[in-house]
Predict the 3D structure of the following.
Amino acid sequence: MHVLLSEVSDTTATRDYGRTVSVVVVGAGPVGLMTTLQLARRGIPVRLVDQRAEPTTESRAVGVHARTLELLDSLGLADEAIAEGAVITSVRMQTKRRHLTVDLAPAPTRYPFVLDIAQPDFEALLTRACADHGVLPERGVTVRGVTQTPDSVAVDFTEGESLHADYVVGCDGARSSVRRGVGANLTGDFHGMQFVIVDADLDTDLPRNAMCATFAPDGALALVTFPLREPRMRLVLPADDGLAADEGAVQRRLTEVTDGRSTVTRWRWITPFEVKHGQVSSYRHGRVFLAGDAAHIHSPIGGHGMNTGLQDAANLGWKLAEEITGTAPAGLLDTYDLERHPVAAAVIRSTSKQTRAMSWTGPRAIARSGLIKAVTSVPLLRHDFLRQAMELTIAYPDSPLSAGAAVSGVRPGDFAVGTSSEIANAWRSTTGWFDIVADVSAEAAVVVRDWAVPTGTRARVRPDGYIGELTAAGSAPTR
Ligand SMILES: Cc1cc2nc3c(=O)[nH]c(=O)nc-3n(C[C@H](O)[C@H](O)[C@H](O)COP(=O)(O)OP(=O)(O)OC[C@H]3O[C@@H](n4cnc5c(N)ncnc54)[C@H](O)[C@@H]3O)c2cc1C
């Protein structure tokens, strides 16, 4: 299907915005869809364009982490996503002789697991949610670049047309044309490792409810498996030794690594993948914002790429909506870069280290095993590992939006929802800011994130679920 921009009004939104819209989102991948959903559910006129004539069939990102599941829950989408994926309840590291397992259940979240869902299924779910708000991707239109004036942005298409908008969000992936259009570059360490990535139906005794990393006798990582809906699995195989992305070579490697106990019964997708790291220096360029892979790319270890992008979208969406509706305080849009740039920078740092550590052999591999053992057996280390891995440490304490002082370890800028279904219900029922007051008789009283706060503590919660202002019992609000 090829849809020219001039033809799209029949196939897309039920609303006709004419030639000027508030926001054009470029790229209908997971991040563009989430950005669109965040805007459309707040009634903002938005158009979503993508160069692909059809949605992707490539299952690239598979892991959805707890913080993203909490976000999906706020949109009423978590149950549907869980029904379409596989619930991963532990992480297992194994050699031929022994294995260590980290159980995800103790993580301080209402979603103590990783949801593995194929990217096309996840995108389809987000597309349906956007359609419920009257917006469908306009497909087969390729953005060539953007030109901005102080008052608007023109999105230029290769088809020769332009669309004018108040703001543009470039969610057009690692090779972003929007990024190029604003003169920004991904800079970083581009000399990554080689992998072969496979989605296949697998006859195997590898665990179906655990993400499993298998190490070779020399200590180097040999195979990582992420179960998808049975019998499908995502396989990641290091390929610095020249492993070819072809079926015969992958099956031979699989036989060797699993002692003949894993056979592919159906090949779905196979691709070489080179780890690249990079980030733009700023996520905002006047009226143009960058989100997802357009702004940051890194190793897929830990599955943070798509999750980080989805949370960019959740952070930006409500801020753009407030700016467009005239309710934003001065400088609100600048806090998108201030808050989200450090998050991806930290992901790039940690995934770079982890990726390098996975290739270690000999004494360094022994040291790595010792560290893994400590993480699985020392409760405090395990708690920190879980919070980090499941993206539960993300917080904006240094943001200009975070007001007030910490109460019992809970800081302004921390995520408010955590394990409390009462706070989650409050978040689900609004697209705006909301207040919570701790009360011993309520569940909200005892758990904000995973800490207790005294009765009477007040939190003003932002539309993306983070605490904007925290006030101790008996104190006056700071603003
Ligand atoms: C082989 C591979 C394996 C991966 N594995 C994982 C994993 O296991 N876990 C994980 O978290 N992440 C993984 N990733 C990364 C993950 O896929 C991305 O982080 C995620 O897809 C980013 O979403 P996005 O919406 O920002 O970009 P994308 O998913 O790349 O979407 C960009 C969209 O923009 C459109 N577009 C591009 N240019 C234009 C243009 N000029 N005009 C109009 N439209 C345009 C594209 O058609 C596309 O639909 C993997 C990536 C690859 C390539």
User: Anything to note?
Assistant: The chain has a mean pLDDT of 89. The chain has three domains: 5-59+118-188+278-346, 88-112+194-274, 403-471.
